[in-house]
C-alpha cells in the first residue's frame, strides 16, 4: 500500500509526506443488531455471527494492512470483542478510547425504530432531520460530532504517520468520514455502513484527508 500512498502524496503536491492512515472497523453483530434496535451505550455482547465477523475482519486487516501497529477501540464490549482478534492478528495491544463510543440514545436504547417513533413522535420526527436534536435523555449527533472530532485530533497527534485500526460504531465512523470529506449533516442520514465493515481514510498533517475505502465487507463472504 505504500506505493499507492506515495503516488497520492505526489499527485496532491505533498511529495514524500506520510499520512496517518485510519482503518475504521465497525463492530460485529450483536443481539440488538439482529432485531434492528437502537444500540448506544447499552452493552450487548457479540453473537456467534459477530465473533465470526470479527475473526474474518482480523484476518483481512492483517493480510491487507500489515503496517498497522496500533488498535484503538471504543470501550463498549461489542467493539472491544471485535478489536481483540484484530490486535492478536497484528501482534498489538488494544487502546481504549472513550471518545469513540456510540451515541447515547437515552430513552430509545433497545427500542426499534417504530417503537421510538410511537413513544416520542414529535422528537423522533425532528431527530431524523436535525443533528442538534437529542433523544430523550440522550445525546444529539452534534454532541457526538464534537466528542469524536476531539478524540480524532488526539488520536492523529498520538499516532502521526502510522496506520491505526479504530474499532467503533456507526455514528462515530460516519462522523469521521464526514469530517474527512468536509461533508454536511445529510451524510449522517444517507450513508449506510454494514456490520463489521471497513472504511479507510488517510489524514495528512496539513489538515487534508483522502477517503480511500467505504463500507467494505468483501472478507465476510
Give the overall average pLDDT: 94
What is the name of the CATH superfamily? Phosphoglycerate mutase-like
Helix content range: 40-55%
State the total count of DSSP E strands: 6
- The quaternary organization reads as single chain
Characterize the largest beta sheet: strand count, sense, and whether it forms a barrel: 6 strands, mixed
Compute the number of helices.
9
Radius of gyration: 17 Å
Count of structural domains: 1
CATH class: Alpha Beta
Reading side by side through the largest sheet, how are the strands ordered?
3-2-4-1-5-6
- Beta-strand content: 15-25%
- The coarse overall form would be globular
- Secondary structure class reads alpha/beta
Distance between the termini: 23 Å
Please provide the ordered H/E string of secondary-structure elements. HEHHEHEHHHEHHEE
Question: Helix and strand layout, with pairings?
Answer:
Elements: H1 2-11, E1 20-26, H2 31-34, H3 48-64, E2 68-73, H4 77-90, E3 94-96, H5 113-119, H6 121-127, H7 141-158, E4 163-168, H8 170-181, H9 186-190, E5 198-203, E6 209-216
Parallel strand pairs: 1-4, 2-3, 2-4
Antiparallel strand pairs: 1-5, 5-6
Helix pairs in contact: 3-4, 5-6, 7-8
Molecular structure report:
This protein is an alpha/beta fold. It has one domain (20-215): 3-Layer(aba) Sandwich (Rossmann fold), CATH 3.40.50.1240. The chain has 9 helices and 6 strands. Strands 3-2-4-1-5-6 form a 6-stranded mixed β-sheet, sandwiched between helices. Helix 4 (77-90) links the parallel strand 2 and strand 3. Helix 3 packs parallel to helix 4 and helix 7 (141-158) packs across helix 8 (170-181). The two termini are 23 Å apart.
Amino acid at each position: 500500500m505504500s506505493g499507492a500512498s506515495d503516488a497520492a502524496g505526489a499527485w496532491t503536491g505533498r511529495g514524500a509526506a506520510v499520512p496517518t492512515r485510519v482503518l475504521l472497523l465497525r463492530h460485529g453483530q450483536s443481539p440488538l443488531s439482529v432485531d434492528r434496535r437502537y444500540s448506544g451505550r447499552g452493552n450487548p455482547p457479540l453473537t456467534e455471527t459477530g465473533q465470526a465477523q470479527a475473526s474474518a475482519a482480523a484476518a483481512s486487516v492483517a493480510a491487507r494492512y500489515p503496517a498497522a501497529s496500533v488498535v484503538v477501540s471504543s470501550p463498549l464490549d461489542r467493539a472491544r470483542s471485535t478489536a481483540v482478534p484484530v490486535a492478536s492478528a497484528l501482534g498489538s495491544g488494544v487502546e481504549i478510547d472513550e471518545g469513540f463510543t456510540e451515541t447515547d440514545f437515552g430513552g430509545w436504547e433497545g427500542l426499534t425504530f417504530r417503537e421510538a417513533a410511537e413513544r416520542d413522535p414529535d422528537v423522533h420526527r425532528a431527530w431524523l432531520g436535525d443533528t442538534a436534536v437529542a433523544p430523550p435523555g440522550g445525546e444529539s449527533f452534534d454532541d457526538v460530532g464534537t466528542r469524536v472530532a476531539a478524540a480524532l485530533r488526539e488520536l492523529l497527534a498520538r499516532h502521526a504517520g502510522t496506520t491505526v485500526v479504530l474499532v467503533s460504531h456507526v455514528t462515530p465512523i460516519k462522523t469521521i468520514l464526514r469530517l474527512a470529506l468536509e461533508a454536511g449533516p445529510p451524510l449522517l442520514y444517507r450513508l449506510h455502513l454494514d456490520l463489521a465493515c471497513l472504511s479507510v481514510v488517510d489524514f495528512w498533517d496539513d489538515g487534508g484527508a483522502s477517503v480511500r475505502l467505504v463500507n467494505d465487507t468483501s472478507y465476510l463472504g
